[in-house]
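Researcher: Structure prediction, please.
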Amino acid sequence: MRAQTILGAIAVIAALVTATNASAQESKIRVGAIDAVLTLPPDVEHPPVALLIAGSGTTDHDGNGPQAKPATLKKLSEQLVARKIATLRYDKRGAGGWKPEFGKPEDFRFKDLVTDAVSLVNYLRANGKFSRVVVVGHSEGGLVGILTARRVPIDRLVLLVTAARKQGDLVKAQLEKTVPPDVFEPIAKAIDAIMAGQIVDPPPRGFSIAPSMQPGMASAFTEDPVEPLKQITEPTLIIGGGRDRQMARVDFAALSAASPVAKTLWLPDMNHVLNDVDDAADDLKAYSDPERPLDPELIETVAAFIVAGDAAK
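Model: Predicted structure follows.
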């Protein structure tokens, strides 16, 4: 009986979301060289708006990359719009090919991703349609969100499965679990060298990063999320997942400690692409399942945080 009740509730919610999105106003926009999708909920004047920032890699506005296609940002946008929250999501640099407007790929630095997010926040501010601007960062997008909040005024910050470590250290921790020691050790040394500003030529087996691209990688590997997060006074929400194979609970704890006034939520069954999964095999399937629903508690918590009044700070 309980299972039938839950399934019935999910069906009702899905129907409401479908009906809302059918009447939502979705438009493609360009801010500088950035292609984005702005979605407005129907019949709402001055809604809050969430800027959704994707994770690492050449990820598009739906939250899909060359390999993984979970449509994380698309699904999050649909759920927020159904709750009368506008969204802006965008293609990261490199998604769909590198544009000449971005300069040479070898000249890319991590700060360029922050500059893109800042320009989108400024666009939303200047638009005049929105009651507040909230930055929502997923994975590496959380780091971009933190650094964006240090450069431009925002109203709220949401960090979804975001690391508390420098990305170089995080990559080493992830690789150590997945590759043999004889392969891992030279890669770890190469990452340390790149983080120290050195060029590794030739790169070790299993880490084929061209020397010309290593300075850009170093700029990402050495960014520290914790120190800038300590300086953010805007209301902040931090969410982590117990079945996330890419981000450990230690990251969730460290971010929470860095922002002691933040609201926090730990979801034991949620994975890195914000789905509830049963085991490792189910987790792997989720990365290529754009129809799998996001964790419902995550959706309700993020939506409530975005619309909450000042008393909820």
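Model: The radius of gyration is 19 Å.
Researcher: Thanks, that helps.
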